[in-house]
Structures are given as C-alpha cells and as structure tokens.
Design goal:
Layout lengths: L1 H6 L3 H11 L5 H26 L2 H7 L6 E7 L8 E7 L17 H14 L2 E7 L1 H7 L1 H17 L6 E5 L10 E4 L2 H4 L1 H24 L5 H4 L5 H10 L12 H5 L7
Parallel strand pairs: 1-4, 4-5
Antiparallel strand pairs: 1-2, 2-3
Length: 259
C-alpha cells in the first residue's frame, strides 16, 4: 500500500481518499489519511515547481511565438567522446514530475525522464560533433556547431519560431533566441534538452567502453577522473580522445586548448 500511494500523482484522487477516511476514528485510518495528505502536498509542490520552469517560456509565448524549442549541450569538458546537443519542442501543456537539470538527476531518473520526453514531445533532434572536429574547430566552435545541427534537423520536422538556449546564442541561426544563464536549471524546455542529450551521450560512451576496454568510459563518460588519467598514462589515447585537450595533448607532445 505505501509504495502504491507513494507513486500516486493525481492530487484529486488523493484528496478523495483523504476525504473518504477522514472521519474514521481508528488509528490506522488516521495514519493513512495523514500519509495521503502528505503525498498530496508533495505532488502539488512538485507540480508548482515544474510549472515554474515554464515561466520564461510563457512570456515568450505571449509575444506570439507558438513553437518554442529548448536547446542544451553535454560533453564540453570530457577528454574523450563527442560533444552532443539536443533540441526539444514540448507540448503546450506539459507536466512531467521530476523534470530538472540533468546534472541534478540520478542515471535511472534521467533514463526514465528521457524516455517520457521523447514519447510526449512534439519533436526532438540531436546534433553531434566528433572528437576530430573538436580538435579542428576548438571546443567552443564545436559546441555551437552541435547546437546548429540539432536546430537545423529540428526545423525539418516542425516550424520552430523561437529558441530557448542554455547560456549562449547560436551564431548562424536566423531564429529569435533567448539565452538563459543556468537555463537547464530554470527552464523546462532546456532541462528536457539537457536530459535527452545527456542520456544519448552516455549511451555512446557506454558503447565505447566495450570498444575500448580498460579506460572506464562507462563510469566517467570521458571526463578526466583519476581512473581515466591513469588509464591514459598506461594505455595511451584512443581514437575517441580529444588530442587538443590536456592531458591528452601533453602525452602526445602537442599544444592544448582548455579541456
């Protein structure tokens, strides 16, 4: 019963349950009523939090924009693997408990939410830039290119008319844009994009873990952990390592970009 109640997300149903047993004087009934009341309060608080993530988007929509996409990236800092961006258009009425910045979520929560976002969104797309391109372009330009690719593909599916972007503007894109500092934490569409991008990139790194055993890619996703650095010194770089990033570049005796 407790686990079942803990999963109930309909506040009206919870209120009905509380009302049905509120007058029952038995201790067990009163304990249930209190439990259901707490659950209802938690559900309402989470709904309010998620609704607040769309405050900025409502302001944009009030200006006449009807197809607003959130864009975010993942994989700027790792020493290995691609940088990935996602662009997501959510339905006008969207309530997804747990929606948040992907960095604040457990892997299991990210997987669950990413599946729900992909299932219910109006459209989504991914943009990816390889380690080789990162080395050629530098990480900033590669990140912007990943975002451009995601937006370009999205616009082939739906008539996007405004972009909500995490922290930056995307050059070379003619659509109106609203950059939001910490956008993945304060805007629902950007948060959704961050989750979709993170889950996709993590799946790539897990595949690379099988392709290049010994580096621990499935655990650190290419970031410069102690385990990863030790493997680099022991085994050398793989084809998916960013050769312009320190300490990969230092192993190869090359100049570096920040990484």
């Amino acid at each position: 019963m407790r686990s079942w109640v803990a999963q109930e997300s309909d506040p009206e149903r919870l209120a009905e349950w509380v009302s049905a047993i509120a007058s029952d004087p038995r201790k067990g009934a009163q304990a249930l009523a209190e439990q259901w009341s707490r659950r209802r309060a938690n559900v309402m608080a989470e709904r309010a939090r998620v609704a607040g993530l769309f405050a900025s988007q409502k302001v944009i929509a009030a200006q006449g924009f009807r197809c607003i996409a959130g864009i975010d990236e993942v994989g700027v800092g790792p020493l290995a693997g691609p940088v990935v961006a996602a662009a997501v258009v959510l339905p006008e009425r969207f309530d997804l408990p747990g929606l948040n910045d992907s960095k604040k979520l457990s892997p299991a929560s990210r997987e669950r939410l990413a599946a729900q976002i992909r299932d219910c969104c109006r459209a989504f797309s991914l943009g990816e830039v390889s380690p080789e391109e990162i080395d050629r372009r530098n990480i900033l330009q590669a990140t912007l290119e990943a975002m451009r690719r995601a937006v370009t593909d999205l616009c082939q599916e739906v008539a996007v008319d405004h972009l909500m972007v995490d922290a930056r503007r995307i050059p070379g894109v003619s659509l109106p844009q609203t950059p939001l500092i910490h956008g993945d934490a304060i805007d629902g569409s950007i948060a959704a994009a961050s989750i979709v991008a993170k889950v996709y990139r993590d799946s790539l790194m897990q595949n690379f873990d099988h392709q290049y055993p010994g580096y621990g890619f499935a655990r650190h996703m290419g970031y410069g952990t102690a385990e990863h650095l030790a493997a680099l010194r022991r085994l050398g770089p793989t084809p998916i390592h960013r050769r312009s990033f320190a300490p990969v570049a230092s192993l190869l005796g090359r100049s570096t970009q920040d990484g």
